[in-house]
């Protein structure tokens, strides 16, 4: 056989020479198999490695009118911090939080999820860390991880770069679907505590640290960790706790709002009916130290970031007024700090400084009022 370097011959082009290592991809799959399989119940057919994930939907015949709920999302630029400090075992929980916790907003129970990882170079152990985090969070939310894809994109992404995304499907009985159609004047707005920044507003976070000359390995004394460690605090998962709340208090939970991109007021406004409004009282909670510290470094106010960060509120639940204490007790018994932050009102808003119509939804109006508490909530 003629050598590729022989005179008069053009060098051979192979997939490995183009930067794609299929053996590394196969090893990554082997490393993640056990964690993925732990998310599988008897409904999952075919195991790991098929062209498509299979999920037995025969149970849907027991529903009167089943509605399938679906959501897709990513983690955003939080992955840049994971890459910077070479820590990849929590990004998977962030992904599940962004995807699966959107499904429960409708009252739906998640069924299954798929993931997608694009990277410049496949490092099997790194990919396995990411998928292990996804699988553990899927287990924590009662979701089967039925498939996924790891794509190597040399030349498009740097060797240490990657991005993650996912999609999930759930089901809810039509008569049990939550939303603005159930919300009534007088309903209470219950806030559920976040675990930190979750996975929104990291472009602002990175901008603040860059302008301040701070590195992710630098110690953030007020946070008791390095900046990288503090900023990778994983997104809190709410799915099972909210499904428990719905099950324990049938008919009392009217709407749920996941506080993600767009911030506090915009996300709550999406689940209130047109013609209603709510004042969210800042004095009912104290934003987490990470938000205060970032604001101090940036030289800005907490109020200026209300449309970007969750500031300590990861979810809202709109609850029948007579079940507020029970709802708060239920959430706290499941490990989610919660408190009443407002009341739904009807009619004209008191002033023009309300947020309305967020994300294309012609819904209610919300503003934040008062001053944040200085004490821990």
Features:
10 helices, alpha+beta, seven-stranded mixed beta sheet
Task: Describe the 3D structure.
With 377 residues, the protein is α+β, with helices and mostly antiparallel strands. Helices cover 29% and strands 24% of the residues. It has helices spanning 22-37, 78-85, 91-103, 124-141, 202-212, 227-231, 239-248, 263-269, 289-298, 324-333, and strands spanning 44-45, 54-55, 66-74, 109-119, 144-152, 162-173, 188-193, 219-220, 225-226, 253-258, 276-281, 313-319, 338-346, 355-356, 365-369. The protein has a seven-stranded mixed β-sheet. Strands 3-6-4-5 form a four-stranded mixed β-sheet, with helices on one face. Strands 1-2 form a two-stranded antiparallel sheet. The radius of gyration is 23 Å and the shape is globular. It starts with 21 loop residues before the first helix and ends in an 8-residue tail after the last strand. The model is unreliable at 1-6 (pLDDT under 50).
Fold topology:
Layout: H1 22-37, E1 44-45, E2 54-55, E3 66-74, H2 78-85, H3 91-103, E4 109-119, H4 124-141, E5 144-152, E6 162-173, E7 188-193, H5 202-212, E8 219-220, E9 225-226, H6 227-231, H7 239-248, E10 253-258, H8 263-269, E11 276-281, H9 289-298, E12 313-319, H10 324-333, E13 338-346, E14 355-356, E15 365-369
Parallel strand pairs: 4-5, 11-15
Antiparallel strand pairs: 1-2, 3-6, 4-6, 7-12, 7-13, 8-9, 10-12, 11-13, 14-15
Helix pairs in contact: 1-4, 3-4
């Amino acid at each position: 056989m003629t050598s590729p370097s022989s005179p008069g011959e053009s060098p051979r082009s192979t997939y490995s020479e183009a930067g794609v290592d299929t053996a590394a991809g196969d090893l990554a799959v082997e490393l993640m198999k056990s964690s993925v399989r732990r998310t599988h119940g008897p409904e999952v057919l075919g195991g790991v490695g098929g062209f498509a994930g299979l999920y037995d939907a025969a149970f849907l015949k027991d529903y009167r009118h089943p509605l399938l709920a679906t959501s897709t999302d990513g983690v955003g630029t939080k992955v840049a911090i994971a890459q910077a400090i070479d820590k990849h075992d929590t990004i998977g929980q962030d992904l599940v939080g962004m995807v699966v916790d959107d499904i429960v907003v409708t009252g739906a129970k998640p069924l299954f999820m798929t993931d997608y990882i694009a990277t410049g170079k496949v490092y099997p152990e790194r990919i396995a860390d990411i998928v292990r985090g996804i699988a553990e969070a899927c287990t924590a939310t009662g979701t089967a991880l039925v498939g996924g894809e790891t794509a190597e994109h040399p030349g498009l992404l740097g060797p240490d770069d990657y991005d993650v995304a996912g999609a999930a499907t759930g089901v809810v009985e039509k008569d049990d679907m939550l939303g603005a159609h159930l919300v009534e004047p007088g309903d209470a707005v219950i806030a559920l505590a976040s675990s930190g920044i979750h996975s929104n507003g990291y472009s602002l976070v990175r901008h603040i640290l860059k302008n301040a000359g701070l590195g992710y390995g630098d110690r953030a004394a007020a946070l008791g960790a390095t900046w990288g460690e503090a900023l990778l605090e994983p997104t809190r998962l709410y799915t099972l706790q909210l499904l428990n709340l719905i099950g324990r208090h049938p008919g009392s939970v009217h709407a749920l709002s996941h506080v993600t991109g767009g911030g506090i007021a915009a996300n709550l406004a999406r689940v209130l009916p047109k013609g209603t409004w709510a004042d969210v009282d800042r004095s009912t909670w104290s934003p987490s130290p990470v938000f205060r510290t970032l604001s101090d470094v940036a030289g800005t106010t907490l109020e200026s970031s209300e449309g970007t960060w969750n500031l300590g509120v990861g979810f809202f639940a709109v609850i029948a007024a007579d079940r507020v204490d029970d709802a708060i007790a239920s959430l706290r018994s499941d490990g989610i700090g919660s408190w009443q932050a407002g009341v739904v009102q009807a009619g004209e808003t008191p002033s023009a400084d309300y947020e309305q119509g967020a994300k294309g939804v012609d819904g209610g109006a919300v503003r934040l009022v008062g001053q944040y508490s200085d004490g821990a909530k």
